[in-house]
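Chapter summary example: a protein plus NAP.
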Amino acid sequence: MSDYRGQTALVTGASSGIGLALAEAFAQRGADLVIAALPDDKLRAAAAWLRRRYPVTVHAIGVDLAVEEGPDKLAARLAELGLTVDILVNNAGFGVYGPYHTLDMEQNHREILLLCAAVERLTHHFLPGMLERGRGTLINLSSVTAFQSVPPMAVYAAAKAFVLSFTVALWAEYRDSGVRILALCPAQTDTDFCAEVGVEINPAGRLRTPEEVVATAFRALRRGVPYAVDGRRHALTAAATRFLPRGWLARTTGRVLHPSKMTRPAKPPRQLPLDGPLDELNVTTITAA
Ligand SMILES: NC(=O)c1ccc[n+]([C@@H]2O[C@H](COP(=O)([O-])OP(=O)(O)OC[C@H]3O[C@@H](n4cnc5c(N)ncnc54)[C@H](OP(=O)(O)O)[C@@H]3O)[C@@H](O)[C@H]2O)c1
């Protein structure tokens, strides 16, 4: 297991799902943590859970990264705290699902700000320091949807294509810098993602687990590859999309993921097992205001 002692990992969207699993993996390897998400009890619970399990420092910062000024506020708060970011995981995200013309315009805009603008902005805040120090790790969360257009999630898939393209370009640009750069592309994974969407978007097959996604990420970091698709079957499918006509692929996907077929309600968000009521655990979060 690699050793990240003495390093600080900033993981956005670490209050649940893949972000929490990645934060835990870095804590297991000795890194101190800054976890960031919306300022709510989910974030406090995640901070309490991590602090109880790992002998590392855990800062929890409440911030809305789906607004223009969110990433700058987060970076400013870290500077005030005197923290250097050695590992940046741009993971926070949500997906908007449904026929494009029915979607809320403001929610689409927030989705783009969170999935694209915040990823680019936080990278620009923290990558130069890593380059100067000649070491660091940047993981940007893309998705298998980055490899093709996805009709009932048109904005989401396009945003994830941005993350993949952006991150692979940085990987090529800074290959010999000592900074490891990875676009991580999970397939459908068992998290609270669908709870946000409202329906279970899973046409077929077993969901991947956040732990499997983490294992894929660390394997990819060791190998130094620019991007990694989690799960062999999904990696093959993503590779195959290169040889298929984009229009045909989009129409087929649109039929499979058509809202009329996604009728199962999403599972409710899961609760972390804490040893007592949150209020009694005395967990404070800092707000990036
Ligand atoms: N699950 C999948 O099938 C799947 C597949 C491919 C890619 N991904 C990507 O993986 C990443 C993690 O998703 P997940 O599946 O782990 O979902 P999740 O369990 O819902 O986690 C999403 C995280 O993002 C945070 N977040 C949402 N809106 C935010 C905002 N405005 N500001 C700050 N933080 C915000 C959430 O915290 P709060 O809501 O408490 O703020 C939560 O911590 C996302 O980028 C997602 O697109 C997921």
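Key point: The mean pLDDT is 94.
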